[in-house]
Specification:
- The chain is mainly α.
- It has one helix and no strands.
- The longest helix has 77 residues.
- It is rod-shaped and about 120 Å long.
- The model has no long low-confidence stretch (mean pLDDT 94).
């Protein structure tokens, strides 16, 4: 076995460097997580906007269909009234 000893000063220096490296890694990881969340939020906002536009388009289309149905119904009622008179 290797019976090397490390001085307290060397140990504390290495420990301090190790702590600094962990702190740096934590900061980098936090920044990366923030970037990912931001990117996802932007992507979701875009999807929400696209879905909102689609809902508005479908609403307008439904209104047109309903208007057409009302016009057809009115036309049928008018034709029946003409036949009766």
């Amino acid at each position: 076995m290797n019976n090397r000893t490390v001085s307290v000063e060397d140990f504390e220096t290495e420990l301090l460097q190790l702590k600094e490296r962990f702190s740096l890694l934590e900061r980098r990881l936090s920044l990366k997580a923030d970037e990912v969340v931001s990117t996802m939020a932007i992507s979701h906002r875009k999807q929400i906007d696209e879905l909102k536009d689609e809902v508005f388009r479908l609403r307008d289309e439904l209104k047109k269909v309903q208007k057409g149905q009302k016009e057809k119904l009115i036309d049928r009622v008018v034709r029946r009234q003409r036949r009766v008179v």
